[in-house]
């Protein structure tokens, strides 16, 4: 009896030693409460009719087309550059006439966000595209008619627009330019190792990345940065606990969405950015005021959550954010040959 008891106690001790602690358990179940894999594209019921190769191919050409700008120098791809993962390295990018008001975010996965631009003054990618045609910080045309007339003189585009919009009496229009560019941008998804992990491949992330994932959730980052895009689905004040500019050392103070709504509660409110490909798209924040991802993580924890992260916590979170880097879509990394006349 004593031998059996000792054996039993010994077996129990082995179990206690072998049993993983809560922090060591596979975090997949917890991750799935906050995140989901990227969809294959960002077409919705309303615009699914444009999910066809002719419209998408035309949209790709127009995305890289500098002749959409008043001086033939600027295209969508100028600011949303391939080599910078669909973003730009400058704090603020120069348009045809003036600098943009805020840092250029990546175009990759942007069509899946609930609004466009940092302050939500563009409804969707189509709205963003059509307003860029006449925006002084973008293409700088005086009117949509000027753009339409210019493109109508390029024979190659006349044919392509007719094929993409066969039922339109006027295929080349500002509206159709925006629809085509939007259709192309809705294909720009960047699935990553994190998506494989969420689908059940627990070996897709290493231990350090998993630690970073758990820290990201437990610290409170996932309260805003969640969903398939790890953000991009809500507004939030930047500087809940402390004024953001005291930590970012921003050169000027931007009042955020207040400039759109004129509501006091919208001061310093911005769209929560997606963190997909964040490791490859510095500088950070709406004004591009912070160059290093580690510093951005540290600042966010301080001004949003009132927490001082340890260097280990920061290092692990950054490792997790690196796991959100996806492969560049083939139809983005290979620029098209454009009509010459």
Automatic annotation (TrEMBL):
EC number: 1.11.1.5
Cell compartments where the protein resides: Periplasm
Key words of the record: Heme, Iron, Metal-binding, Oxidoreductase, Periplasm, Peroxidase, Signal
PTM summary: Binds 2 heme groups per subunit.
Protein origin, superkingdom: Bacteria
CC cofactor note: Binds 2 heme groups.
MF terms in GO: cytochrome-c peroxidase activity; electron transfer activity; heme binding; metal ion binding
SUPFAM superfamilies, per the entry: Cytochrome c (SSF46626)
Gene3D superfamilies per the UniProt record, alphabetical: Cytochrome c-like domain (1.10.760.10)
CC annotations in GO: periplasmic space
Entry binding sites for heme c 1: 76, 79-80
Sites where the protein binds heme c 2: 221, 224-225, 300
Span of domain Cytochrome c: 54-158, 207-325
Principal subcellular localisation of the protein: periplasm
Pfam family, one: CCP_MauG
The protein's required cofactors: heme
Matches recorded under PANTHER family: CYTOCHROME C PEROXIDASE-RELATED
Protein's recorded name: Cytochrome c551 peroxidase
């Amino acid at each position: 009896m004593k031998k059996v008891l000792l054996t039993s106690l010994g077996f129990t001790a082995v179990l206690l030693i072998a049993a993983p602690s809560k922090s060591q358990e596979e975090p997949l179940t917890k991750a799935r409460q906050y995140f989901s894999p990227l969809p294959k594209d960002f077409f919705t019921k309303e615009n699914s009719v444009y999910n066809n190769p002719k419209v998408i191919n035309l949209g790709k050409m127009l995305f890289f087309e500098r002749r959409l700008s008043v001086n033939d120098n600027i295209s969508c791809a100028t600011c949303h550059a391939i080599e910078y993962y669909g973003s730009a390295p400058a704090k603020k990018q120069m348009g045809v006439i003036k600098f943009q008001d805020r840092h250029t975010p990546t175009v990759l996965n942007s069509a899946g966000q609930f609004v466009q631009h940092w302050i939500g003054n563009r409804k969707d990618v189509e709205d963003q595209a059509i307003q860029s045609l006449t925006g002084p910080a973008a293409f700088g045309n005086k009117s949509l008619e000027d753009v339409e007339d210019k493109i109508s003189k390029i024979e190659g585009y006349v044919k392509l627009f007719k094929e993409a919009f066969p039922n339109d009496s006027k295929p080349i229009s500002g509206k159709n330019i925006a629809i085509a560019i939007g259709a192309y941008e809705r294909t720009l998804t960047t699935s990553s190792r994190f998506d494989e992990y969420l689908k059940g491949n627990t070996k897709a992330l290493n231990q350090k990345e998993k630690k970073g994932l758990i820290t990201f959730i437990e610290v409170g980052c996932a309260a805003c940065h969640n969903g398939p895009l790890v953000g991009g689905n809500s507004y939030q004040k930047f500087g809940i606990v402390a004024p953001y500019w005291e930590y970012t050392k921003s050169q000027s103070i931007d009042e955020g969405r207040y400039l759109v709504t004129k509501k006091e509660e919208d001061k310093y409110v911005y769209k929560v950015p997606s963190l997909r490909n964040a490791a490859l798209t510095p500088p950070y924040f709406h004004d591009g005021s912070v160059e290093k991802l580690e510093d951005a993580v540290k600042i966010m924890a301080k001004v949003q959550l009132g927490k001082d992260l340890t260097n280990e916590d920061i290092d692990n979170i950054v490792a997790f954010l690196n796991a959100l880097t996806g492969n560049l879509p083939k139809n983005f990394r290979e620029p098209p040959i454009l009509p010459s006349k």
